[in-house]
Amino acid sequence: EKFDALLTELDISRPLGRTVTTVDAAITAAEALEYPVLVRPSYVLGGRAMQIISNTAELLQYMDEAVEVSENHPVLVDRYVSGIEVEVDAISDGETVIIPGIMEHVERAGVHSGDSIAVYPPQHLSEEVKACIEETTFRLARGLKVRGLVNIQFIVHDDVVEVIEVNPRSSRTVPFLSKVTGVAMVDLAMHAVTGHSLAEIGYESGRIAESAFVAVKVPVFSFAKLHGVDISLGPEMKSTGEVMGRDTHYEKALYKGMVAAGTDLPRHGTVLATVADKDKEEAWPLLAEFARLGYRLAATEGTARYLRSRGLTVRVVNKLAQGTPNLSDDIRQGQIQLVINTLTKGLKPERDGFRIRRTAVENGVPCLTSLDTAKSVLDIMKLIHFQTLALGEKVAAPVADSRWPG
Q1: What pLDDT was estimated at residue 388?
Q2: Of 63, 75, 223, 383, which is the most buried if we count CB atoms within 10 A?
Q3: What's the whole-number mean pLDDT along residues 291-296?
Q4: For residue 394, what pLDDT is reported?
Q5: DSSP E strands, 62-191
């Protein structure tokens, strides 16, 4: 409530939200804000027990299973905005505010910042949006009377900038941003913390000029070692580390980062798609591009039917309950080289989505649960493919599969 009052005082936009202390109040708030909504306990670390809720039935289940709501344990209900998530680390002495850089997340809002791929400098933000982020950072740092480091997370939707989170402390991106910008952020922060002025050592408020290099922070996951953990990405943080890729081109920097993070991107083979109904329209152009690059497509019946209606050649694979061979058998037998799965509600072991994701990770097959990540991987594969053609290299033929249609 204090933070909301501060944002109002500073005239800073944020997604609408309410604090509730009963289940009935949560339902009323969600209906007033309109689904989908982001629901979380009032005190949360690492995104624990945060969920994106799409309807009242899901909200009732969440309130029953995930949290204990009461006067002493309020729950926050916020309108979920699907847009580009942006992160800023700044140093302030209470007056001068230095912004070493702005980072743009690959995955849209709803994926925890620690699990998102972050790109510096941002690739899809206009100068007007960057200027708005800069000005908002100034107002927040001064309004909160920050001395030292502050981390701010924004959502950008239709060029409208809104604040979603402010942490008046160091963050996990400080080492990354310090390294790629050459700004000694911790040294400057300690200078401010100990009561000195940043102006006296030659700094003035503003953004540091962007680097000519692109740097990408890629999260590292330990899913193969953590049995029973769902690998789908969401508001709860699941990564156990991070690496950096750096190059003059975004796609090359991302490729370096993903390789360093242990993701073996296949240059040929079969892409298995099991996509939720809400994601099919967005997914099919990506899968069409994979097919254009020479990848074969396989899908469960519903996804295959949709993709075929769009003119794509797709092999149908059985779901787990449809007998053998099924998609898990195909993954284990090396028939699948990449999985794109957006059935993020499969949190229980008996659900198909959960078992698909676990089978993939346990057999070393990359599994992408965000279409934003899939698009970035596609950009990498297009770069590799066309560079290979330009160099005249031979691309290994995919393993023969007698079940392939045609």
Answers
A1: 58
A2: 75
A3: 94
A4: 46
A5: 75-79, 84-92, 97-105, 118-120, 148-157, 160-167
Q: How far apart are CA 341 and CA 287, in angstroms?
A: 12
CA–CA gap between residue 98 and residue 78 (Å, rounded): 30
* CA separation for the pair 270, 247 (Å, rounded): 29
| C-alpha to C-alpha distance for 38 and 59, rounded to whole angstroms | 10
The mean pLDDT of 301-307, rounded to a whole number, is: 92
How many Å separate Cα 35 from the centre of its chain? 20
**C-beta of residue 126 within 8 angstroms of C-beta of residue 219:** no
Q: Where are the alpha helices (DSSP H) in 47-150?
A: 56-65, 127-143
164 vs 109: CA distance, rounded Å: 10
| pLDDT tens digits for range 378-388 | 999 998 887 75
| CA gap 11, 381 in Å, rounded | 44
User: What distances in angstroms separate CA 176 from CA 168, 212, 218, 255, one per listed residue?
Assistant: 18, 16, 11, 17
pLDDT one-digit tens code per residue, 211-223: 899 999 999 988 8
Q: How far is CA 78 from the centre of its chain?
A: 18
pTM: 0.84
Tokens of 57: 């039935």
Residue type, 190: M
161 is written with which tokens?
């900038």
Give the pairing type, strands 148-157 and 118-120: unpaired
Residue 35 and residue 220: Cα distance in Å, rounded? 32
CA distance 361 to 175: 29
